[in-house]
Amino acid sequence: MKKVKYLILGGGPSGLTLAHSLIDRGVPQDQVVLLEKEPTVGGLCRSQQVDGAPLDIGGGHFLDVRKTDVLDFLFRFMPREEWNSFDRISRIRLRGQEIDHPLESNLWQFSKSDQVDYLESIARSGCIRGEPMPEKFADWVTWKLGDRIAEEYMLPYNRKIWSMDPAKLGTYWLHKLPDVSFRETLRSCLEGSPFGALPAHGTFLYPKNHGYGEVWRRMGDALGDSLVTDCPVQSIDLATRTVNDHWQAETIISTIPWTLWPGFCDIPREVSKAIKQLSVVAIDVEYVPETMSNPSHWIYEPDEAISHHRYLLRSNFCTNARGYWTETNAIRSRPTTGFRHHNEFAYPVNTLGKLEAVAHVLAWAAGNGVLGIGRWGKWEHMNSDIAVAEAMGEAARITSEITNK
Q1: Which of 3, 38, 162, 374 has the smallest CB count inside 10 Å?
Q2: Count of structural domains, the chain
């Protein structure tokens, strides 16, 4: 039996950052252990060589440049000079052409008749008429953007990515979407240039000579004996906070999906009920060797006759690479003879009632000396830079509580 202060489950960006941040804040390294089920750390941000160049197995992952504390932290493991900087080019395929993202800021790229069609629809929307904001995402889309954008882009795209009725999604996560006002949309059409808030990764970094998984691999190596790979969780004794009958911790930090926990330990009925309310989307990432003649870094595809919902053109950001990869909800995937990586846990789904369910699970976990952080601990779709920032903040909170006791 090995006793430690902190036992971290899952070696993705959240788990790796928390481990290093705890050690940075004075926790002895031999009192921090991270267990990772795969032979390589990185979680959804792992990369592997495919057709002579890196491919990110979790889909498109890039480093946003807006959080300087996150950059300073990650540059310790992979210095700034090892990254290329790009101004984001992302597009949407709609009405037989490609329009820059976000759509509301770039309607001016359509013909005049199409612009009038979209603007007239937005002008009739519920938010313009002063109607109260709906609680369901499907209703919100029409309320905010009008029926044209809803029916041609937002609703089909979300049906593809989630493989469920968008009416089952809540609206509490809308802060993650670009918020472009009707005034800004109209002005962009009049002046022929985009207006409004830039989406995430407006400028992003990507490794010069590696896939995105390289920075996380180096973080894992830097943990030395504090990292244990090829070690899936098999059992958890909550009474003693013992994992796999081998590691006993004062605190367990879980970055792995709560939906796996019923297989590790006995869960109270009400908590089990809350866990069953948590939905997840599995994503297949497929490689296509043909190189597109297209300057985009990624392209959104709302056409429901096409199985995938996004293209990642790696030849435009990955050095000496060709081809592209696609992301497809696994339910929609079709047979392939090429490379495919299946991510059973890709996207947590923002269903109605999710916030209450997650709060119930986290309260039960905290009562048993278990903290949940990251994409799966909070059941929230976090970009990697957000996950790093959150884990750094959790380490500060944990260590300050110890200091104040």
Answers
A1: 3
A2: 2
Last residue of a domain, one of 142, 166, 191: 191
> pLDDT of 35-52, one tens digit each?
999 999 999 999 999 999
358 shares a domain with 337: yes
Structure tokens at 298: 């990624």
Question: For residue 381, how far is the Cα from the chain centroid?
Answer: 4
The helix (run of H) or strand (run of E) holding residue 112 is: helix 112-123
CB 254 within 8 A of CB 365: yes
**Tokens read off for 196:** 């409004």
Looking at 7-108, list the stretches that DSSP marks H as alpha helix, in order from N- to C-terminal side.
13-24, 68-75
d(CA 197, CA 200): 9
Do you know the residue count of the chain? 405
Structure tokens at 82: 């090892």
DSSP of 227-252, one letter per residue? EE-S-----EETTTTEETTTEEEEEE
Among 162, 191, 220, the domain-final residue is 191
Residue 90 backbone phi and psi in degrees, to 5: -130, 140
Q: Return the closest-CA partner of residue 43 out of 34, 52, 33.
A: 34
Beta strands in 261-375 (DSSP E): 280-288, 298-300, 310-312, 324-329, 340-348, 370-372
- Per-residue pLDDT tens over the stretch 266-293: 999 999 999 999 999 999 999 999 999 9
